[in-house]
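Hi V.,

You were right to ask for the full record rather than a summary. Here it is.
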Amino acid sequence: MPESNFVDYVKIFCRSGKGGRGSAHLRHDKYIPNGGPDGGDGGHGGDVILKGNRNYWTLLHLRYQRHALAGNGEPGGSNKCFGKDGDDIIIDVPCGTVAYNAVTGEYLCDVTDDGQRVVLLHGGRGGLGNWHFRTATRQAPRFAQPGEPAQEMMVVLELKLLADVGLVGFPNAGKSTLLSAISAAKPKIANYPFTTLEPNLGIVPYRDGKSFIMADIPGIIEGASEGKGLGLRFLRHIERNSLLLFMVPADTGNIARDYEVLLGELTRFNPEMLDKRRVLAITKCDLIDEELQAMLEENIPTDLPHVFISGVSGYGLPQLKDVLWNELNNESNRIEADYLSEKIVHRSKSADEIRAEVDTMGDDDFEYEYEDNADDGEIEYEDDIETVFDK
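Predicted structure:
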């Protein structure tokens, strides 16, 4: 078992059910000569369905259940009896999960709402029985359709956290300290870089029983969009945040330069990050006086809301909450759930990117060979009858 139970990336094998074969039965009842065809249709194969579940917050439950296999459709029977449909397989995932094809990197779907269902793989349709192929000149057809084959795919599930405010900053910028100071979250805090190794969520209380959700991700370093540090792995968690809180320590050499570096890394990772509203927090202000604070304020961009804070002493935290709440409820920043899902454009990935991510996550690159042991028997059909489905 890994040290952490936060799993935000898994690779699983999915296979839908194949359709059941149609029956080529001829009626043989007493006192009914030449009963004719009465073969029923085969059942439909089960689907592979992704379902959003708010009771899950990671993909840990899928890390050791790596196969999602739907049931096959049963073959048709005599007397025009339909075969039983195969059972669907439902994969519960936390809200904010994105699915990709693990081989091609193609974007498949995005599950954002509780109870939302997305059919990942459709089951095969059942074959038609010989009852459908009777004609005036062919009154006893001895053939039927086979069922459609199953679909199978290696799927990568990637979790992107849903939060209102995302914290962005270099290592040791005070992100975890701030989260612990204004919420009930208890992230690990220490005086060395990359203390935070996984995203943390905290509910920040506000006035009159109101609140908002804040997400803390590991520190970003210059070159994170190219794979340096831990930033690349967790940058996707702030793609869904409607507001980004940039955190720069007061003891840094140049606040404006650090802010531009952070913004540049986000832009190279996803250019749509520029469309999000941004707030700048200058942290560790318990180490400076008002004179130094005034000097630092001269180098801050004027069009960017900023607050001087200290997570240790609590200086400026009420003012920071007010700024964040006003920005979140700004008329131009109100994003409905439907609009948010349409606004975020999930880009397809190349096969090399998928392979590199799987290696980075330490996920075992297993292969699964489809073995169909079901005995469908021999099905006779004529060349002039198409066995494809033209419904």
